[in-house]
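Structure ticket #2291
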Amino acid sequence: MRYLIERIKERVINSVEGAGLKSPEVEVPPEHIKAIFAVPCFKYAKALKKPPAEIARDVVEKISVSFADGLEFFERVEAEGPYINFYADWNAVASRLFHEILEKRDSYGKDDLGTGKRILIDMSSPNIAKPMSVGHLRSTIIGDSLARIFSFLGYEVIRDNHLGDWGTQFGKLLCAYKLWGKKDEIEREGVKALLDLYVRFHQEAEKNPELEEKAREEFSKLEKGDDENRKLWKWFIDISINEFKRIYQLLGVDFELWLGESFYIPMCDDVVRDALEKGIAEIDESGAVVVKLEKYGLPNLIIRKSDESTLYSTRDLATIRYRVEKFDPWKILYVVGSEQRLYFQQVFRVAELLGYATHERLVHVDFGLVRLPEGKMSTRKGRVVFLEDVINEAIERAKKIVVERNPEIQGKDLEEIARKVGIAAIKFADLSQNRVKEVVFEWDKMISFEGDTGPYLQYTYVRAKSIMEKAQQNEVGKAAKLKNVILTEEVEKELVRKLLFFPAVVREASEHYEPHRIASQLLEVAHMFNSFYQNVPVLKAEREELRHSRLKLVESTSIIIKTGLELLGIEVMERM
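Resolution: structure written out below.
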């Protein structure tokens, strides 16, 4: 799909090449330079034996001759120092852009880049028998946004919720349940009751270290298929998944796969055998199987313990093998915190040595931790903020604000709007930041409705839609037929510039795995639109052609905001 922005860029390249410069690099100039594109001439200086500024002047002279019959998308081309700056004819650009947006509507920005390519996204991945904390929010919504972005660009996307449903912690939980658990209490309170048992185990184990050995025995029984422990374990999983699904529904997040770690246990022996047969692993003096990675500048990776039990690494390697064989993905994205960076470097290297997947096929989309002001979250210490509590608090705060501003909204409408606004506040607070930044959880920052927030963008959309609703139907119809748009104000031109670059920003977000690029673009669109709304008359514009041009600008803006928010997993509403 070639959008207007790409055709304009192509016109720049062709004109510069036609003037004698091969393979020009096209840049978007900084904000204070009003040109739409710039071409630097530094790299040609040595070959042409001329200063870059002189080269720029010569090229502009030649371009001016080739554009003798009109500049098409451009008002003028100027040499400014070592740069060739192309200044847009914003009326010509807007005329074509509005036609493109209003024709494609919700599909504007879509592409077929990913046709025939499948991406699997490992995301969210909460641990069974523990409530999802606010720490799980980042993996969940970053992964979901990336899934939406890649689907929008034509890729087939598989979201895989790789549940933490195996490991020694289940020995501790089984031990705790048999000592202190009450079935009716767990059925009533769900995962929080299981968490209480887990926390209590650690508290009691500090006083009675023998409990650790009992926990190991219980997990060993689980590994060997003990009927009682297997039934309890599956019960813990069912309770947990039911609660997780309720939270995902509130967040508007879905998964194609729910395969936990335990699913891959039967495949782990094959991984160990492959590693030994290929000569990339050896059995050390303790009996553990170790892959030597020193020559790659990485610590060695243990893939089987001395007691022959599996580790995360074994299960993750089995997972990679299964995913590649089953789904043949173009990429597998692991949306997992930055603290696991070294671990994934090890696992990806071993997967490559085993021949399971090339290094390029496996991508760790890392992100900064969410921590409390007093330090890192800890489930076993009970120092954690539960995700459901954050969601409920956001919805309640949103409800109060909606009632204050629109008391006529009541009942189901109020509940639905409050949910959308509350979730928007939570998601945008996270997705508007560069994912690699660490987040310090503070209630007022996480659930904010003032300033550059999700609700601000939702409100901007509602404002744009209200203008269109107030316009008489015959005006809207005439505006749709207007071919040559007229822009008279600088803010209109700046807004058109932001809309024009939207498809490019979506692509960049996919290339860098950074949803915050879309969030930033939407904020700039909203700022420009609200400045336009406050300073430029639309429905009261004196001339018909101005009213129609501005109506097209308003409608195009509403489409971009809605599409961008949907790529972030944020819903819009028609009133707020």
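Closing remark: The first strand starts at residue 37 and ends at 40.
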